[in-house]
Amino acid sequence: MAKIIFSVALIPIVLVYIADSRTCKNVGDKCKSNEDCTTGNCQERRCEYSPDTRTNVLKASQHLRLGDMKRQPDVNTRSGILPESYRWPYGTMPYELDPAFSSSELDLIFKSFRAIEKRTCVDFVERRKEKDWVYYERSKDKGCASDVGKQGGRQILNLSGADVEGGSDCFHESIIVHETLHALGFHHEQNRHDRDEYVSINWDNIACPEQFNFYKDNLTSATTFGVPYDYVSIMHYEGNEGGIDPKLPTIIPKLAGIKVGGNRLSELDIVRINRMYKCIPPQ
Ligand SMILES: [Zn+2]
Where is each Peptidase M12A domain found (predicted)? Predict the structure, then answer.
């Protein structure tokens, strides 16, 4: 009997101790790096997506790849784009080009298409009557942005020019290839479900509304096509991309001496595209 009373008396003490360890003094205080003090308790920080904040960060940043995947309610469940319905049949992506592009901008877009076509079986064809296609739009203030994979019907890939007030300068081959790879169905490399084995994320240097850019893919829906982690993928953010303090990293590679983020298609990018589109390698 004495033992039972002792145990019953101990339970509230243990519970109080656990509750105490989760309380904090002032609302707004930081608890752990990924927690905020909310109503007196340390709670995991909830980041709500805000298009306005994203636009402001984009304007203040030279990081053109930050938040460039058009966000849809189910994006995290289909990241990696496993379903075949999000791929372009036979690896052929029909496109239309905004008449507002200048001839030098068009040259860059075509150069980007050729860079992908040269090493893969993917090809880009001017749209005739195809029901699904990508419209490359010279957008005013939407930065550089693309849907991930084929959406059905007309989907817009935004490229803005530096001459547009508030616009990003998307006219670099690396950016156009990057956005086009999103349209083909690729996600950011650092979002891979296994990325923690290769990089650490410095959450303290990432503004709350931008943290979703660094969430990991869902293992059940994402696929890596059996390709090793690629620090230099054109789909990998740079090391300080999205940083509150641009001098500090947001992504820290676990392999010493590696600089993350690529500006051209890497060898592994090419393997990945060929695997997604089941290209037969040249004999
Ligand atoms: Zn991107």
Answer: 79-280
Say how many Å lie between the CA of residue 1 and the centre of ligand 1. Answer: 65
Q: Which residue type, as a one-letter code, is found at position 27?
A: V
The pLDDT tens digits for 152-200 are 999 999 998 877 666 678 999 999 999 999 999 998 999 998 999 999 9
Catalytic residue among 179, 189, 238, 241: 179
Predicted pLDDT at 281:
61
Q: In sequence order, which residues have a C-beta less than 8 Å from that of residue 251 and are 6 or more positions away?
A: 190, 199, 200, 201, 202, 214, 237, 238, 239, 240, 241, 260
Residues β-bridged to residue 41: 23, 38
Residue 182 marked in a binding site: yes
* 217: confidence class by pLDDT, cuts 50, 70, 90: confident
pLDDT digits (tens, 9 = 90+) for 116-131: 999 999 999 999 999 9
**Residue 179 among the catalytic residues:** yes
Cα of 68 vs centre of ligand 1, distance in Å, is 5
Asked whether residue 188 is marked as a ligand-binding residue, the answer is: yes
Q: Ligand 1 centre and the CA of 148: distance in Å?
A: 9
pTM confidence score: 0.77
Tens digits of residue pLDDT in 92-113: 999 999 999 999 999 999 999 9
Q: What is the mean pLDDT of residues 37-57?
A: 58
